[in-house]
């Protein structure tokens, strides 16, 4: 057994052996099920132009170590992307890993007007139908999309177009697209083996995340599969001269944690959860390392590492897969928030203030994992909160009032057990540009 396999086996034994941590660490009662769950991370191949197989190795090993089962490889029209996809599959195979990959066709990029356009999709799929690291579901290669609801491939309907493109006369696949359509139309689309609700990952207004978008899909899918979206953040800042995207979705109130808790609470209905994303820097919801080629997003991404969310992710993935929250063996602090006031004006930023900017509060969002009761303190300048916490997971919010540096600590029996001073977590009143990205930090 290679080193990666040994490590993953150890990780699984450790996590599963932890069992229930008690009521303080269980936000709500869970009904365990025997159905297998999969956690997938959406991966933008368009940001991998300079990638080598070693880069893919690093990402696969890191993702697998956190409990992620597969990458959904978002592919578009760039002629070099098939070569990066080939590298990804080669890397997974060379590692001897159980980690899987599958294609997610980005139909906002790929053409789909004629049946001839389907050739590109088929050419992408063909080499990996029987690859040992191809993600299989119900015995078939899994295939997904981003969008594609306007595609007809020369046919008269959405269903006929996709059926002619991917299924009719082709090797069998398990097709779970993300079509932005009314779920009431699902009964007329037998080409779908399931559906992915992309926009379920964020609230679409100034309110907390809820399960309504999922329920609307589940009610129309019948026995077909449902893949839920989950995402920590959303901010994009492109002007009309580029992608013309400049808005936020509401990430307040511990969005990432709240969304996972909803999925865990409803896990009997969900076999597949897709994290949006591993590396979409342009929309600020990346959880992996910042490397590869940024899509001109440097002004709001550079210096904003999000890997602090990865260890928190482990806690929720275990609960999603097993129905049990793992015991906490180490005290941890997770902090995130914006570095600049939402109401600040930046006259030099020609793109302008993002749409929906008023949906977010100037706050630090803290999650604390305690193996035993303790005193938690988080502060930034004159704003300070100190509370006695029970063992388990706790959430706290700290308002940000003025220029300051964020610090946090855990004391137990008057002894410091965690002193956390995250480098770079400084709230400033004078942003150089409109930057609504999250700064994320986690204690060792």
Automatic annotation (TrEMBL):
Q: Which UniProt keywords apply?
A: Hydrolase, Signal
A Pfam family that the UniProt record links to this protein: Glyco_hydro_71
Q: Does the keyword Signal apply?
A: yes
Signal peptide boundaries: 1-19
Record field: transmembrane: none
Give an example GO molecular function.
glucan endo-1,3-alpha-glucosidase activity
Return the protein name. Answer: Glycoside hydrolase family 71 protein
